[in-house]
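Narrative of accomplishments. A recurring question from our advisory board has been how the design workflow behaves on a single, concrete structure rather than in aggregate. To address it, we present the structure tokens for one chain from the evaluation set, followed by the sequence designed for it. No filtering or post-editing was applied between the two.
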């Protein structure tokens, strides 16, 4: 299987046959008669793809869907992506914005890239755009492309980076809309999360330790970032807080049993040391386990 390394914007453009107007950023549209092949792409640049082919099959958790809308996928430096061609599609079409991390040097966007967690989402958690959202997406890309067609001056970087930030902020809005509109799917995932969490505390925590967000995201077949956002939108709490709240509720129930020592309760919940459990419980309730037990 071919392995492709994309370390620079120039390498990306050469790979797909585009002219490089700026060594740090490019906006391109691919529409060529080619036979796609399976490969692994190693990204050391940022890449945002608007996939234009219709009828692609994508999965959300264990549920399969066919979408006619265009989809957006995002990749960040350090990511390794497996590309598998869709059977019967001989002419892949996509528009892409690619930019090097150096473009963001000494910019506010560079300092805040961590807030765009969708770069960590799996490809099967793509963003599905409405017709209006596609128009907005393309309009922002067009502004970047127009700036790239001008001679570089002292304003070029600021304007390009500002428009990239605008596009990323729109993607945040569109993802939030997607979480809301997929309410039924989200609700099913949260219900599964609750069931898995209860089973984990009852049967696994003693031997496996404290439950983690990564464990439940994997069980729901979602990336950590997407799973966390889904839970936050659906419940108003982070997945980590959801787990912590359940641990507190379970601890209170166990502490009501006078035959269990604090150390035994701690072990049952998955804490490595009783003192860790005591600190956790007091931080969440304002009382130590012993004080809570004496008050009930």
């Amino acid at each position: 299987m071919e392995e492709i390394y994309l370390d620079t914007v120039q390498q990306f453009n050469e790979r797909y046959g585009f002219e490089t107007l700026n060594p740090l950023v490019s906006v391109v549209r691919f529409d060529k008669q080619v036979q796609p092949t399976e490969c692994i792409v190693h990204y050391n640049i940022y890449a945002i793809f608007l996939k234009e082919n219709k009828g692609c099959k994508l999965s959300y958790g264990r549920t399969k869907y066919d979408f006619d809308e265009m989809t957006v996928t995002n990749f960040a430096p350090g990511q390794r992506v497996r590309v598998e061609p869709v059977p019967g599609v001989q002419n892949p079409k996509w528009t892409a914005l690619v930019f090097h991390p150096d473009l963001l040097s000494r910019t506010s966007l560079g300092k805040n890239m961590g807030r765009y967690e969708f770069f960590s989402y799996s490809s099967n958690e793509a963003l599905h755009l409405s017709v209006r959202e596609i128009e907005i997406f393309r309009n922002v890309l067009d502004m970047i492309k127009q700036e790239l067609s001008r001679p570089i001056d002292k304003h070029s970087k600021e304007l390009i980076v500002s428009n990239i930030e605008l596009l990323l902020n729109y993607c945040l809005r569109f993802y939030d809309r997607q979480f809301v509109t997929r309410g039924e799917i989200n609700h099913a995932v949260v219900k599964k999360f609750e069931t898995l969490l209860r089973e984990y505390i009852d049967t696994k925590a003693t031997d496996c330790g404290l439950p983690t967000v990564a464990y439940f995201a994997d069980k729901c077949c979602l990336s950590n970032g997407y799973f966390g956002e889904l839970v936050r939108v659906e419940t108003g709490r982070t997945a980590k807080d959801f787990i912590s709240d359940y641990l507190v509720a379970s601890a209170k129930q166990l502490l009501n049993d006078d035959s269990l020592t604090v150390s035994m309760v701690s072990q049952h919940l998955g804490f490595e040391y009783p003192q860790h459990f005591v600190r956790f419980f007091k931080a969440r309730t304002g009382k130590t386990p012993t004080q809570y037990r004496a008050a009930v």
